[in-house]
Queue: 2 jobs
Job 1
Amino acid sequence: MNMSNFQTWMQSVQQRMESALADLLPDAALAPDRLHAAMRYAVLGGGKRVRPLLVHAAGELAGASPQRLDRIGCAVELIHAYSLVHDDLPCMDDDVLRRGKPTVHVEYDEATALLVGDALQTLAFQVLADAPLADSHATQLSMVTLLAQASGSRGMAGGQAIDLAAVGQQLSRAELEFMHIHKTGALIRASVLLGAQAGTPLPTAEIEQLDHYAKLIGLLFQVVDDILDAEADTATLGKTAGKDADNDKPTYVSLLGLGEAKQLAEDMLAEARETLAPMGGRSARLEALADYIVHRAF
Ligand code: GRG
């Protein structure tokens, strides 16, 4: 796909998401105003919006309306933002910098950060449930279930539990993969599938291809995150660099070394491309997003 077209599309989705999120989040003047201000601080004005971009790219492929995809993108991004706020808390990763700004518990306080995460998570499900987002109620209900599964103990929250237990441990490649499939991969996979479900039902073969692609890039995202944590600086990342090694966390870089981790990322990108190939030009944006995920700077 023409990369300048892709850049233009990406920026337009990012702008749509910023204004959709700003509209959905409670006004900072509304009581309880400190909580609402902190929710807006956590979500707005930062982040690559990778998950909403995936929602839009997969949804366009299925002919879903941009308005539906905006809402679904918001639901997924709200879950993601909640996970970052909680992950940064002293009882978890204990970090002071996120998206180039002080983390929520530093800017506000720990109790507020906890409540911000709680409120963002419930707002995500409200957004997914309170307007028509699919061609049938049954499909929309299955979308709510999908997001709940991807976020819960068999998805992202479970992956985070495994991550916390793994500090200082030696993990095998299979164990590392299992952790990341849940912690990072589940929400990324859900983003693709939710977008696709908002449109006209796709043939089973295409849903399977999308699912395989989504699983691949979920893991790929994490391989690259590990590489960036080892190679990039804090100013570029907008979060503290080198934390994995400092915290003695098992990563693809600690397991495979930098060179092999980079090769793995390129191999997985090639597999993602092959997976999309049968869909031809209709999947061009998903392919460009996989490329963006691998070659991003932060
Ligand atoms: C607290 C339940 C709970 C889960 C936390 C997502 C997560 C699980 C922790 C975040 C820490 C981390 C480094 C995760 C690995 C990769 C990842 C999700 C990075 C952040 O996502 P980006 O790069 O962030 O999409 P932006 O800021 O661009 O949205």
Job 2
Amino acid sequence: MTPSTEPTATRTAGATIIDGRAMADELREDLANKIAASGDRPPGLATLLVGDVYTAMAYERRLGRLAQDLGCHYDNQHLPADSELAEVLATIGRLNADPRISGIIVLRPLPDHIPEESLYRRLDPLKDVEAVHPWNAGLVALGEPRFVPSTPSAAFYMLDRYLADSGRDPSSFYEKSTIVLVGRSNNVGKPGLWLGLERHATVISCDRWCDEHGRLRHYTRQGDVLIVAAGVPGLITGDDVRDGVIAIDIGINAVTDPETDRVRLVGDLDFGSVLERAEAVSPVPGGVGPITDVWLLANTLKAAGLPRWVHELGQPR
Ligand code: NAD
């Protein structure tokens, strides 16, 4: 992905609000050019959604719009929440075999009776653009990724860009910094740890048990950078961060406004109070999310371009 020189942040009362949409717009333009240059057969993305969770449906709609705007083939598989595991696995099998599809994403959350690991193991590793198949997840952990998962990539792209735009050398910044990640899902938090380690940062991982035992704040206050992906609205307040933190909010939570009864999306940061203490904060919406979407399509283009011999080597299914 090619960075640019346009301003991608706004300063508000001392702190900077990082503009993820502006960054995503640039990446999208770059990607559109690459897709246009990629020949007659466009990359194809498939989303697999089981059930009707609001945030997953919103994500599916966004990805569908973006894929179609970029001229990609798009296939949306939406199965009912009570689908049998065998039916979901069979759907993945069909997508694996479909030559129009180069990338597949399993949207989350899944219903409780569908173990996500079973679905991930069924994905064709060469179409696993979120790097959740054990082969691809292992490659990410080794620092030799085939695909870098879109959400943590987007968070680190945003950080790298913000640091460079504000006149710092990202490499030396990370070497001297502590990054605290809250949440350690296989999709977001854990690959985020690997990306932080690759940058030679000191990385701390916190999860719900840390919070349950009253230790979360102790660690979050140590972060020069705080990346939050817990799915808990307003989990982190201004009291939980150190002065001058750069806070990246990955959380996307649907909350209903009691007065208007309307649903809106909020992050895991208590935005106002964190903003008061921070150097910079990414907002929700308009932060990591739009970059994530473009990144996923970029991975799909990469998957479409994997040479034939990689497929012919044979991969475990
Ligand atoms: P997940 O539910 O799989 O994982 C959440 C993680 O946070 C788990 O490790 C859980 O134990 C931990 N956690 C829960 N409560 C906690 C607490 N009180 N304190 C500390 N840790 C806690 O979710 P996920 O898929 O990793 O997604 C996390 C959030 O990021 C969700 O809100 C999701 O909607 C959002 N998300 C955003 C993007 C994006 O593009 N911005 C993409 C994917 C997910």
